[in-house]
Amino acid sequence: MDQAGVCSSDFNSLDCIYLEPSLFELVAYAEFGISISGADCYEAVTQSSLPSSWDSSEFSFGEASPAANFLSDACMFEEPLECDQESVRPTDEAELYALPLGFRSSPLGSPVRFPPEEPFEQLLRCNYFGCTSVPFQKMCDFKLHLKGHANQVLGNWTSSQPCRCSWPRCPSKALFKSSRMLQTHLENIHVSPLLCSFPNCTHRTPFRSNFDLKRHLRTHSGELGRFHCPYPNCQKDPKIFVRKDKWLNHLRSSHSGDACPLNHCEAGSKGHFQSQAEIVEHIKKFHGNFECGVGSCSSGSRSRFAEFDLLKHLEIVHGMQYSDIGAARNVAKLASDRTVRSKDVPECEDCMCCKKAVKDLGQIASKGGALPPHIR
Fold it and tell me: What is the pTM of this model?
């Protein structure tokens, strides 16, 4: 007999039916002395499906047994009732705890069986060092217990000087200057961990805030390519970044020069900056996330306009009217890549700088030469 049920995967032919959890508990306890709880779907077998190696006298149903009557009536169905849930394969803690009670299994990544391979309460065991509490059967009780430990940690915090989290074995090295910051850390890391629930995600540690989690989720949602390396001859991978800080670190560590590499930048002349660090500070201060894709600007390198500079560019370079500029700005704000394109604006003047660069590009390409810095 299987440890947690009355049905074994080793049987070749079973006349199985599906029982409601409460009925299955009754049958299992009354007939076999097995106590089972916390499951949404289990299998039970009829007397005729018991293996020959079992002692029939030990597991036989009495004539007046409620379980025998129930099983006999249930076996009148030509086909077994289908289970509502399918076996799942959780890939991380967030996906594991999103499963209904009774459909969880351990270790992570192993297929979930019916019933679970080990009791659900084993998954809700407090690992706080020195805690002697028994495993919990309900998630709400488990989190309430963890909040008690969090309050203990908060009680150790003093306002005299910043201190680290005193939760046993906490890997964080951050110094918390206020009890509110420490409370946020305890909630997001220890009590209700902010974990990525995307299937097969390799990031297994909790995030410090919802902002960090949402920023990480953008790597799964296809929002890649927001930050490109503007240097045309960059040989270091990756060249595309989701996070702006990683992009700036790439510029600071991988490139050298004394001119801003972004298009349409007034500080782009050579000799304007003394070091690459100054270029990075300039980009952080004066450049934003908006792009112009009107006319020949769509063929040039990225400009990373701030919102005000984009409006000024559309007015001065493309000669657009104020009302059209406002409409173009609204379109750019709604676009995932913050880009204004020709289809979004009325007919207007072309950018002569980008037009000349595109023409030069065609001439260089026909001669087999290298691309100019203005064009990626």
Answer: 0.37
